[in-house]
Amino acid sequence: MGKTLADKQAMVTELKQELSKSQMTLVIDYKGLTVAEITDLRRRLRESGATCAVAKNTLMRRAVDGDENWQSLGEFLKDSSAFLFLKDDLNGPIKAYQDFQKVTKKSELRGGVLEGKALTFEQVKAIGDLPSKEELMAQIAGALNAVVTKIAVGIKEVPSGLARGLQAYADKDGSTSDEDQAA
C-alpha cells in the first residue's frame, strides 16, 4: 500500500526543512545498496554533520519548486535518488561519502547544488579535496604564530644589539685609554 497524500506532503515539508538548513545538497544513485549499507552511509555522514534522505524524485521536485537556490537539483533527479544534505562543513561529508563509495562500489554521485549552481561530479570532488575548516584554521594559526615569533625576536634583538654596540664601543674606548697610558 502506497503513502497517503498527507504522508507525501509531510515528506515534502521535511525535504524543504533539510534544504533550508543546508549549504550544499548532493544527489546519489543508491540503486543496489542494502539497508545495512544505507545505514552505514547515514552514520558516516552524521559524524561529519550531514544527513541523508531517500525520497522519490517527484517529492524532491515539489520541495525545490519555486526555490531558486535548489531548483537546479532537478537535472539530477532520475532513477533511484538519495539526497545528502551538507550543513556547515562541506568537504568532511564529501570525504565520508567517497570513503563509503570506495568500500561499497555500488552508489554513484550524480552531482550537487551549491549556492544555486549545479555542480558536476568533478566539481564536487574538487570541493572534497580542499582542506577542512579545522585544517585551514590550523594553517592560519601557524602562520600568525610564525609572524608573532619573528616580531618578538626582532623586538628583543633591538635592546640586545644596542647593548652589544655600547659594549663594543666601551671596549674600544677602554683599549685606547690603556694604550695611551702605556705610552
Distance between the termini: 120 Å
Mean pLDDT, to the nearest integer, reads 84
- Secondary structure class reads alpha+beta
Number of strands: 5
pLDDT < 50 runs, ≥5 residues: none
The level 1 CATH classification of the largest domain is Alpha Beta
| Continuous helix count | 6
> What fraction of residues sit in β-strands?
5-15%
Q: Radius of gyration, Cα only, in angstroms? A: 31 Å
Going by CATH, the homologous superfamily of the largest domain would be Ribosomal protein L10, N-terminal RNA-binding domain
Report the helical percentage: 55-70%
Strand order, largest beta sheet: 2-3-1-4-5
CATH architecture of the largest domain: 2-Layer Sandwich
* Major β-sheet profile: 5 strands, antiparallel
Question: Could you say which overall geometry the principal axes of the C-alpha atoms support?
Answer: elongated
Number of folding domains? Answer: 2
Function: Forms part of the ribosomal stalk, playing a central role in the interaction of the ribosome with GTP-bound translation factors.
Protein name: Large ribosomal subunit protein uL10
GO molecular function: large ribosomal subunit rRNA binding; structural constituent of ribosome
Keywords: Ribonucleoprotein, Ribosomal protein, RNA-binding, rRNA-binding
